């Protein structure tokens, strides 16, 4: 089983979409093993989005992600990194299929509701989980329906 870092961004929090996002991931069968309602500071934002430093949208991205509270989470499941990305849709909500989170709840590239670790960026899940969570903030637990979710 694989772990991935997921976050409801400030726009999603302000729009009351935490429950919607959590519900979709739960319905899919994924298991939450960590969750934290928090405010991201400048340093954490620059670390988290370090790969985009120097790009024209970097400053706006850091301003946005620090502009209000977020809900940071760790989710576990089979192929979790890639499956969450598929549920999120494309980076640009305008290009995201209806049925995906960004395709159902967003219109604008800079306000795309959710973050999930990138399956094309090897190790980004571990890096992001480590940035946001201490080891003792993650909970190992057995999901009651696990035997019905997996062969
Ligand atoms: P995250 O889950 O936020 O990392 O999104 P992503 O992995 O789908 O996209 P990426 O990591 O490439 O970009 C990070 C964020 O920067 C995106 O979610 C967008 O909000 C923003 N972004 C990416 N590309 C552009 C761009 O060309 N212009 C602007 N204004 N914002 C961008
Ligand atoms: Mg990304």
Automatic annotation (TrEMBL):
<feature type="domain" description="Nucleoside diphosphate kinase-like">
    <location>
        <begin position="1"/>
        <end position="140"/>
    </location>
</feature>
<dbReference type="GO" id="GO:0005524">
    <property type="term" value="F:ATP binding"/>
</dbReference>
<dbReference type="GO" id="GO:0006228">
    <property type="term" value="P:UTP biosynthetic process"/>
</dbReference>
<keyword id="KW-0547">Nucleotide-binding</keyword>
<protein>
    <recommendedName>
        <fullName>Nucleoside diphosphate kinase</fullName>
        <ecNumber>2.7.4.6</ecNumber>
    </recommendedName>
</protein>
<keyword id="KW-0546">Nucleotide metabolism</keyword>
<keyword id="KW-0460">Magnesium</keyword>
<keyword id="KW-0418">Kinase</keyword>
<feature type="binding site">
    <location>
        <position position="91"/>
    </location>
    <ligand>
        <name>ATP</name>
    </ligand>
</feature>
<dbReference type="Pfam" id="PF00334">
    <property type="entry name" value="NDK"/>
</dbReference>
<dbReference type="GO" id="GO:0006183">
    <property type="term" value="P:GTP biosynthetic process"/>
</dbReference>
<dbReference type="InterPro" id="IPR036850">
    <property type="entry name" value="NDK-like_dom_sf"/>
</dbReference>
<keyword id="KW-0479">Metal-binding</keyword>
<dbReference type="InterPro" id="IPR001564">
    <property type="entry name" value="Nucleoside_diP_kinase"/>
</dbReference>
<dbReference type="GO" id="GO:0004550">
    <property type="term" value="F:nucleoside diphosphate kinase activity"/>
</dbReference>
<dbReference type="GO" id="GO:0046872">
    <property type="term" value="F:metal ion binding"/>
</dbReference>
<keyword id="KW-0808">Transferase</keyword>
<feature type="binding site">
    <location>
        <position position="102"/>
    </location>
    <ligand>
        <name>ATP</name>
    </ligand>
</feature>
<keyword id="KW-0067">ATP-binding</keyword>
<feature type="binding site">
    <location>
        <position position="112"/>
    </location>
    <ligand>
        <name>ATP</name>
    </ligand>
</feature>
<dbReference type="InterPro" id="IPR034907">
    <property type="entry name" value="NDK-like_dom"/>
</dbReference>
<feature type="binding site">
    <location>
        <position position="9"/>
    </location>
    <ligand>
        <name>ATP</name>
    </ligand>
</feature>
<keyword id="KW-0963">Cytoplasm</keyword>
<keyword id="KW-0597">Phosphoprotein</keyword>
<dbReference type="GO" id="GO:0005737">
    <property type="term" value="C:cytoplasm"/>
</dbReference>
<feature type="binding site">
    <location>
        <position position="85"/>
    </location>
    <ligand>
        <name>ATP</name>
    </ligand>
</feature>
<feature type="binding site">
    <location>
        <position position="57"/>
    </location>
    <ligand>
        <name>ATP</name>
    </ligand>
</feature>
<comment type="function">
    <text>Major role in the synthesis of nucleoside triphosphates other than ATP. The ATP gamma phosphate is transferred to the NDP beta phosphate via a ping-pong mechanism, using a phosphorylated active-site intermediate.</text>
</comment>
<feature type="active site" description="Pros-phosphohistidine intermediate">
    <location>
        <position position="115"/>
    </location>
</feature>
<comment type="similarity">
    <text>Belongs to the NDK family.</text>
</comment>
<dbReference type="GO" id="GO:0006241">
    <property type="term" value="P:CTP biosynthetic process"/>
</dbReference>
């Amino acid at each position: 089983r694989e772990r991935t870092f997921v976050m409801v961004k400030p726009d999603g929090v302000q729009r009351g979409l935490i429950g919607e996002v959590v519900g979709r991931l739960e319905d899919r069968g994924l298991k939450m093993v960590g969750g934290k309602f928090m405010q991201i500071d400048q340093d954490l934002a620059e670390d988290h989005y370090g790969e985009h430093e120097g790009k024209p949208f970097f400053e706006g991205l850091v301003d946005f992600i620090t502009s209000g509270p977020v809900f940071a989470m760790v989710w576990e499941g089979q192929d979790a990194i890639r499956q969450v990305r598929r549920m999120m849709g494309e980076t640009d909500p305008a290009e995201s299929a209806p049925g995906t989170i960004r395709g159902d709840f967003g219109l604008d590239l800079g306000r795309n509701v959710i973050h999930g670790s990138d399956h094309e960026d090897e190790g980004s899940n571990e890096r992001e989980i480590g940035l946001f969570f201490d080891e003792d903030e993650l909970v190992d637990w057995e999901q009651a329906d696990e035997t019905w979710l997996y062969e």
